[in-house]
Amino acid sequence: MAATPGDSRLEMCIQCGTCGGSCPSGADMDHTPRALFALIRADLRREVLRSNTPWYCVSCYYCTVRCPQEVHITDLMYTLKNLAIRAKLYEENPAAGLAETFTDQVENFGRSFEFGLATRHNLRHRPFSLPGLAPLGLGLLSKGRMDLTPRRIQNLDQLQRILARAKQLEEAV
Questions:
Q1: Domain check: are 124 and 148 in the same one?
Q2: How far apart are CA 169 and CA 173, in angstroms?
Q3: Burial of 63 (0-12, 13-18, 19+ CB in 10 A)
Q4: What is the pLDDT of residues 111-144, one digit of tens each?
């Protein structure tokens, strides 16, 4: 956990379960944050890095705010994602693919492109679900809630420089 910027405070976790009970994505996680921290303490690195838990973290910080020990749970989830990527233990996880697609879009357009995100993700991981999603997609398109083509933000080059610098700093750790 030394790879986590600042002091993660993971050693302060008292296994109370507040984090998992607070998490809006908890039902989709194969391990609650509390359980994942127990796996870390048990030195079960491979199981930790193969877990979908960090990938389902939506970075709302609700767990972190509610933690009685002030463990920086969301920051730890980012670290675990990075470690899973470096160890190449994330590839079979559909949530990791969704995060990768989202990141690619933000780097290229400065924002998410929902139509492309949903299409690419479902083609890669659930191709047979696409016909069932058509009514939802058509409804979003007809109400102007989704675009067929991506739009770039203004000053995208500035965002790309920031992201490039963040990657440099991350690699230096």
A1: yes
A2: 7
A3: buried
A4: 989 899 888 888 888 889 889 989 998 999 999 9
